[in-house]
Write a structure and sequence with these properties.
- This protein has 291 residues and is an alpha+beta fold.
- The strands form 3 sheets. The chain has a 5-stranded antiparallel beta sheet with strand order 1-2-3-5-4. Strands 6-7 form a two-stranded antiparallel ribbon.
């Protein structure tokens, strides 16, 4: 079975992790942590600093200097390279070797990020891949979207899987009025989905409708990929789409869907049954929602 990969984001920097099935724990890339703690954009410089710090800790008799595992992770150059990884507790100990406000912020984020509603929902999204429930989700329908939302946020929000009855707005944009929402959703559901253009048009309209009080983007991106998979044998590799580009294109799509269509088309892949593509997609999908 392919390894389970996770990508977390701290200050827009990737922190890669891989699941250790034998010990039931996440192992995190040390170089990514070092880059975060040093505000370092250069991968090689972060790598070199870790070599220096590792030797220093080892000389001091610090266990962190010698007690690391190496696993192959995807490097910035697109190749899988052996990378030092550490467990949750080891990462906390490593961060304490960097006495700074940045390190304190990182420890706070790292300690609590999985205990938030978003963190718990993200875990559920990962589990969707393994679940037989995914096979029962209706593709391209309002019911299917409600099923996805209910799965992601069930037990976290009391409105999970329920169409909103209140008006909502974001960034000054008013989404579909609640009193007209049922009518709008009926129209959207009937929209054709036989081509890429039609599927994305349907996705754009569902975004304008924004049928839930919260969790619309995360639910509709899964909904979109399920339509693409069923109708075209394709899906979006969200890891290839920059967060700012995506958000800007979605804002413009209300009037003109050209930008988002070009962005999505450039990230299409036929790896529809690839577990890592799905897992990375969840990571990026949730990252898009971070403030």
């Amino acid at each position: 079975m392919p390894e389970k990969i996770s990508i977390r984001f701290f200050d827009d920097r990737e922190v890669r992790a891989v699941w250790d099935d034998e010990n039931s724990r996440w192992l995190f890339s040390v170089i990514d942590i070092v880059a975060v703690l040093r505000n370092e954009d250069d991968y090689q410089k972060a790598r070199n600093y870790w070599k220096y710090l590792k030797a220093k800790l080892k000389k001091e008799g610090n266990q962190l200097g010698s007690d690391t595992t190496q696993l192959k992770l995807l490097a910035p150059d697109g190749k899988r390279r052996l990378t030092n990884v550490m467990s949750y507790d080891q990462i906390i100990a490593l961060a304490k070797e960097f006495p700074s406000k940045q390190a304190n912020r990182f420890i706070e984020w790292f300690t609590y990020s999985d205990e938030t509603i978003d963190g718990k929902s993200k875990t559920k999204a990962y589990e969707l891949w393994e679940s037989s429930f995914m096979d029962s989700i209706e593709v391209g329908t309002v019911k299917g979207l409600k099923q996805i939302h209910g799965y992601l946020f069930g037990g976290l929000y009391d409105f999970a899987g329920q169409i909103r009855t209140k008006n909502i707005a974001k960034g000054g944009f008013q989404f579909a009025m609640a009193q007209y929402l049922d009518r709008s959703l009926t129209i959207i559901e009937k929209m054709p989905e036989n081509s890429f253009e039609q599927i994305v048009d349907k996705y754009i309209e569902m975004n304008v409708a924004h049928p839930f009080m919260e969790g619309n983007g995360r639910s509709t991106r899964i909904w979109l990929n399920m339509m693409l998979k069923k109708r075209l044998g394709l899906c979006v590799d969200w890891s290839k789409i920059n967060k700012r580009d995506y958000l800007d294109s979605m804002k413009k799509s209300v009037a003109d869907g050209t930008n988002i269509k070009n962005l999505l088309k450039g990230a299409l892949t036929d790896k529809i049954d690839d577990r890592e593509i799905f897992m990375k997609g969840i990571d990026y999908s949730y990252y898009y929602e971070e403030n």
